[in-house]
Write a structure and sequence with these properties.
Blueprint (H helix, E strand, L loop, with lengths): L1 E4 L6 H4 L1 E4 L10 E9 L2 H7 L16 E9 L11 E7 L6 E9 L6 H4 L3 H14 L6 E5 L4 H12 L3 E6 L4 H7 L2 E4 L4 H8 L6 E4 L6 H8 L5 E3 L11 E2 L6 H13 L7 E6 L3 H10 L5 E5 L1
Parallel strand pairs: 7-8, 7-10, 8-9, 10-11, 11-12, 13-14
Antiparallel strand pairs: 1-2, 3-4, 3-6, 3-14, 4-5, 5-6
Helix pairs in contact: 4-5, 4-9, 7-8
Bound molecules: NADP nicotinamide-adenine-dinucleotide phosphate (NAP).
The site of NADP nicotinamide-adenine-dinucleotide phosphate has 33 residues, from helix 2, helix 4, helix 5 and strand 8.
């Protein structure tokens, strides 16, 4: 199959190339898809750069997000058949013609492959962080980084749960965050004061998707570190903040994303679509840190 691969950690544009490699196959509990779209996430270029400490022992396909058509069903899998359109999270890479998924949900018919293929990581993460907070309908949550992939999904999942959402973004993304249904405010220094002005009744929970130092403000606003979750500030655990990086239950959370997609309560703007050959450019754009929505690779 055609796939983007790298054999040494480094700058994505330098170390990634498209070549023919052996196809992967679905193991027990897995499905293989013919990939129609593969979303780009910051973790992809972090891994290619070697920032997570992993160094490839053999040509390695990057990427986790994928949507496509099931063409192999592994032993023990129930509820998925050859020909189904699904989206989810891959093991062994997704920037390729075929990918093996370890967690997936059925793609609603009306949802394009690029949108579904961009939600495997950010959609699952959004449900995960809000489950960890466990806020009741009517509560108020602050989402730092509301204009990014995880933030956009988190805002919409929170609104669907009946929460009031205050979302931070850069100056150019204030109207965009408002269009999602959140109260926008700029990110960065002074956050706690700006949020207090927007939420005179107080803040019940905080989600840090950006890892840019907002957790102290979020703890101050909520009055309790246990009411703050971060996905990107791994030093924040020492404050008592909840730090989450994955765990189990991805398929259940993806099923909830599929429901929201089917109901029209979750949308994800596609900020750019790239052929596999331009994976280095896609990763560079993600790395610049201000994509409004998701970038998607099409094999
Ligand atoms: N632990 C996990 O399970 C998990 C899962 C998924 C992602 N992550 C990590 O979470 C992070 C975000 O992922 P993503 O996919 O949402 O990235 P993304 O799409 O690149 O979004 C980045 C966001 O950060 C915002 N931002 C930039 N500078 C900021 C600042 N100084 N303060 C606050 N926000 C700022 C951007 O806003 P503007 O563009 O409006 O400035 C944008 O909303 C990445 O580090 C990723 O690796 C972790």
């Amino acid at each position: 199959m055609r796939a983007a691969v790298y054999t040494a950690a480094g700058t994505p544009a330098d170390v990634l190339s498209v070549t023919d490699i052996d196809e992967p196959h679905a193991g027990p509990g897995q499905v293989r898809v013919a990939v129609r779209a593969a979303g780009v996430n910051p973790i992809d270029w972090k891994i290619v750069r070697g920032l997570t400490g992993k160094s490839p022992a053999a040509p390695t396909v990057p990427g986790i997000d994928a949507a496509g058509i099931v063409d192999e069903v592994g032993e023990g899998v129930t509820g998925a058949r050859v020909g189904d359109a699904v989206f989810g999270q891959a093991t062994g890479g997704s920037a390729a013609q075929f990918a093996v998924l370890t967690a997936w949900a059925t793609k609603p018919d009306a949802v394009p492959f690029d949108v579904a293929g961009a939600l495997g990581v950010v959609g699952e993460t959004a449900v995960r962080v809000l489950d960890l907070l466990g806020l009741p309908s009517g509560a108020t949550v602050v989402v730092d980084g509301a204009s990014g992939g995880v933030g956009i999904a988190t805002v919409q999942v929170a609104l669907a749960r009946g929460l009031t959402v205050i979302g931070t973004a850069g100056e150019g993304n204030q109207d965009f965050v408002r269009s999602l249904g959140a109260l926008p405010t700029p990110h960065g220094p002074g956050l706690a004061d700006r949020v207090r002005a927007l939420a005179p009744g107080g803040v019940d929970g905080g989600v840090d998707t950006a890892g840019r130092g907002s957790v102290r403000d979020l703890v101050e606003l909520t009055g309790d570190p246990a009411k703050v979750v971060t996905i990107a500030d791994f030093g924040a655990a020492e404050l008592g903040v909840q730090v989450t990086g994955g765990g189990s239950g991805q398929a259940e959370r993806l099923a909830r994303i599929a429901e929201l997609l089917a109901d029209g309560r979750l949308e994800m703007p596609i900020a750019g679509t790239f052929p596999l050959e331009r994976i280095g450019a896609a990763y560079a754009e993600s790395e610049a840190g201000h994509v409004r929505g998701k970038l998607v690779l099409v094999p």
